[in-house]
Design a protein that fits this description.
Blueprint: H1 3-13, H2 23-26, E1 27-31, E2 36-38, E3 46-47, H3 50-55, H4 64-74, H5 83-91, H6 98-104, H7 108-116, E4 127-131, H8 149-158, H9 190-206, E5 209-213, H10 221-232, E6 239-243, H11 250-262, E7 266-271, H12 276-282, H13 288-301, E8 306-313, H14 321-335, E9 340-345, H15 359-375, H16 382-397, H17 410-428, H18 432-435, H19 440-447, H20 471-483
Parallel strand pairs: 1-4, 4-5, 5-6, 6-7, 7-8, 8-9
Antiparallel strand pairs: 1-2, 2-3
């Protein structure tokens, strides 16, 4: 932790509570297609009451559950849904968790106001991320049909994945119907209607940043409806951000570049974390050279306020994270533009987590990345150094990615690793041994898992729902609040 970050934590955050985080008040992600929300991308999403948003559109963000978690953070409690940050902070006090970064973006006065605020009070977010739907042209290996329609097509065509036994197996045995209950056109969707009411009334005046995600944002008709709104309202001061995999067709990339000319502050976020064929394997649908070329073109031709790359750090990405960073460094030099990296450690599905790799591979990767980081520190900024050092510490020391549900044992997760990717290869016309041929230790370990006893036959697609992932946490907070008389039970 650098000196400025340490002082910020001690003076601004720790003087409020040991767990205070401004994101719980001022940040939100809302999946409008199915009515779910969370405060940042680490906690599991929870349901929004459709009747409540009809009366108060801000209930898209100000759910009773979220208010109760705010109360816990005001009181210095390590809320269970925020364990991603607690794992980092409890591991080493000198490591920087996302709680710090997600608070630093807000004024000190706003943080103080949130800390002193009555937990029952509504508050407008300052940074809001929304997904209109789950339409997507990619089917990344760690995604599922609930967040990608291309994944839905896979399950409909090939049926459920078989012989998976670790928690969350149902995500790969469902067509994801839960994610778009109002259909692909979102007809009579109360959450979409509430958003536009909220946007037109006061959200457009109180927001600092509105960020559109998906699926793939540029595939959504509602995204382009919003672009049209911004073109007609060029004096709007809200920063607009878009998450795009940049595997998009030329006409959409052209229009995105054109939009950057009339939107005052357009921020673009893309995702990648590995190099070449590794990236193409993990992110099915991505073509590495196309992603590089589209990124370069957007940086050179677009009038962007900023460009970000989000790394989803999973077991397979560790083989080429160094080469990926080198490619980004080259892009920075070539374009003369700054590229911001964010480091997000994958926890679900757990069999694709770093923690599922055998210890000898984990330690070798940690040692290698540490040497690479130290040798290339002159090319890395403070946040990149923090992100890499945090990742290295996680690789070495964390044995279980999450405890949202009762977790599977290591052997079960490792067998699921093989069973999933061997089926993924057939469905996606890939070959694990070829894609990771430059990482022989991984391939040898992978092949050693061939004959395993993880058996689980699924006859037809199940009605799994990703919102059930955090139901235990959600119910615990609500039940405790009812028992203590904070809210009335329904």
């Amino acid at each position: 932790m650098d000196e400025d970050t340490r002082k910020y934590k001690e003076i601004i955050l720790d003087t409020k509570s040991n767990t205070f985080c401004g994101a719980k008040w001022y940040n939100a992600t809302i999946w409008l297609g199915n009515g779910a929300t969370t405060s940042c991308h680490h906690p599991p999403p929870h349901r929004i009451d459709p009747d409540e948003v009809k009366n108060d559109p801000s209930a898209l963000h100000n759910t009773i559950y979220k208010k109760l978690v705010r109360k816990e953070l005001q009181e210095g409690k390590q809320s269970r849904e925020c364990e991603y940050c607690w794992k980092i902070e409890n591991l080493d006090k000198n490591l920087v968790s996302d709680r710090i970064y997600k608070s630093q973006v807000y004024d000190d006065s706003a943080l103080q106001e949130a800390f002193e605020m009555d937990w029952r009070k509504n508050v407008n977010p300052i940074n809001l991320e929304i997904a209109f739907d789950s339409n997507c042209n990619f089917a990344c290996s760690y995604c599922n049909a609930g967040f990608s329609t291309t994944w839905t097509h896979d399950i409909k065509k090939n049926g459920p994945y078989q012989d998976l036994n670790s928690e969350g197996w149902g995500a790969f045995a469902t067509e994801g119907k839960w994610s778009m209950p109002y259909g692909p056109k979102n007809e009579e969707n109360p959450y979409i209607e509430a958003f536009w009411k909220w946007w037109e009334s006061d959200l457009q005046y109180s927001l600092n940043e509105l960020r559109i995600t998906g699926g793939e944002a540029t595939v959504s008709k509602d995204f382009w409806k919003l672009i049209d709104w911004f073109e007609k309202n060029r004096d709007c001061k809200v920063n607009l951000a878009v998450n795009t995999n940049l595997g998009i067709k030329k006409d959409k990339l052209d229009r995105l570049i054109e939009s950057s000319k009339f939107i005052k502050n357009l921020h673009v976020y893309s995702s990648n974390e590995s190099f070449g064929i590794h990236s193409e394997y993990i992110r099915d649908g991505l073509i590495w050279n196309e992603w590089l070329e589209n990124t370069e073109r957007l940086l050179l031709e677009g009038d962007l306020a900023s460009f970000h790359i989000m790394l989803t750090i999973n077991a397979l990405s560790l083989g080429s994270m160094d080469k990926f960073h080198e490619a980004v460094i080259e892009l920075k030099h070539k374009t003369g533009k700054n590229i911001h990296l964010s480091y997000n450690i994958l926890r679900f599905p757990s069999f694709q987590s770093i923690t599922t790799l055998p210890n000898h591979i984990r330690q070798e990767r940690a040692d290698y990345l540490e040497k690479w980081t130290n040798a290339n520190d002159k090319h890395l900024n403070n946040s990149e150094m923090d992100g890499l050092n945090r990742t290295i510490s996680y690789i070495r020391n964390i044995d279980e990615g999450h405890s949202v549900k009762e977790v599977s044992d290591l052997q079960t997760r490792q067998y699921d690793f093989f069973n999933f990717y061997s089926q993924y290869d057939v469905r996606r016309n890939k070959l694990f041994e070829q894609a990771f041929g430059d990482w022989p230790d991984l391939v040898d370990w992978y092949l050693s898992l061939t004959n395993n006893n993880n058996k689980h036959h699924v006859i037809e697609a199940v009605e799994a729902n990703a919102l059930d992932w955090g139901k235990e946490i959600f119910d615990g907070v609500i039940d405790n609040a009812i028992s203590n008389g904070l809210i009335n039970g329904k």
